[in-house]
Amino acid sequence: MEQIFTSELGSFYNFLFLMSLIGLVVFVSLYFVDAGYGKMRTEKWGPAINNKVGWLLMEAPVFIVVLYLWLISPYVVTRQAPYWVFLLIFEFHYFQRSFIFPFLLKGTGKMPIVIML
User: Fold this and answer.
1) CA atoms within 13 Å, Cβ hemisphere of 54
2) What is the pTM of this model?
3) DSSP of 53-109, one letter per residue?
4) Are the C-beta atoms of residues 36 and 98 closer than 8 Å to each other?
5) Is there a contact between 12 and 6 (Cβ–Cβ < 8 Å)?
6) Could you give phi then psi for residue 92, rounded to 5 degrees?
7) What is the pLDDT along the chain (117 residues), one digit of tens a residue?
8) DSSP label at 37?
């Protein structure tokens, strides 16, 4: 059991390292490339869809996947409050971000499909 846990922990640290490198590359590259949404959107970013639909399709998977992973995890039956508090904070945030905020957007802006994906 200990070896499995150590292996999973090593994989997790490798994942964190990889995501940190990707974040660094994106951070630096955004100084040289205009993001393809909002007032920076141009046709060079390809086909676009309604901003509200794009925002919902971009953010809703996070809400749904985290909820699903929580429901199949062993922590769903725990009575320890911190697990529930952090889950609820995260899910409330992404519920608002996914299902409320997009419909508060004004205007008829477009979002490139590439950015949404």
Assistant:
1) 19
2) 0.70
3) HHHHHHHHHHHHHHHHHHHHSGGGG---HHHHHHHHHHHHHHHIIIIIGGGG--S--
4) no
5) no
6) -60, -45
7) 455 555 777 888 899 999 999 999 989 988 888 777 666 677 777 888 888 888 899 999 999 999 998 888 877 777 788 888 999 999 999 999 999 998 898 878 888 888 888
8) S
Among candidates 40, 27, 32, 18, which has minimal Cα distance to 111?
40
Is the C-alpha dihedral spanning 36, 19, 85, 1 positive or negative?
A: positive
Give the tokens for residue 45: 């970013």
**Distance in angstroms (rounded) separating the CA atoms of residues 95 and 56:** 10
Q: Which helix (H) or strand (E) holds 33?
A: none
Can you say whether residue 72 is alpha, beta or left, with left for phi > 0 and alpha for psi between -120 and 50 degrees? alpha
Q: What does the block give as tokens for 76?
A: 């769903």
Note the residue count of the chain. Answer: 117
